[in-house]
From TrEMBL:
The lineage of its organism: Eukaryota, Sar, Stramenopiles, Oomycota, Saprolegniomycetes. This is Gfo/Idh/MocA-like oxidoreductase N-terminal domain-containing protein. Pfam families: GFO_IDH_MocA. Residues 6-127 form the Gfo/Idh/MocA-like oxidoreductase N-terminal domain. GO terms for molecular function: nucleotide binding.
Amino acid sequence: MADPVRAIIIGAGQRGRAYAQYALEYPDALQIVGVAEPQTYWREHVATTYAIPEDKVFTTWEDVAKLEKFADCVIISTQDSMHADPAVAFADLGYHILLEKPMAVTKDDCLRIHEATKRNNVLLAVCHVMRCTPYSLKLRELIQCGAIGKVVNIQHIEPVGFWHQVN
């Protein structure tokens, strides 16, 4: 059996902790080996939960990027407007990237990320987890079996409140 993928959590908010949870459920597949999070409580929570050594616990992603590569990938789940710079920096360091949606908030930043991953031949996966939620899967099933008639249009609007943009 192959060694587990070693990942660094960049942004240990709700989404970052949700992705990290996979390591608890499947420790043979994923190991969390570092964390960067400005909020002390969540940084310490992740460090303790995943037994991350003190020298791999950081306040900022920039501090992680100063070190030699020590993991296979990074999971970037910072605030939306903060995705581009760490994605480019970690691609340049040779890390594969799991990037929370949206990829970036501007076209130029999306292009920067794309160019960096191509230039460094690293994998980039942008998470769109809403398509895998139980209600989305059920809706897809109902549409495919024709149970709800002919679908002409679907508008899926994520109810984003003010707290979604709070640092």
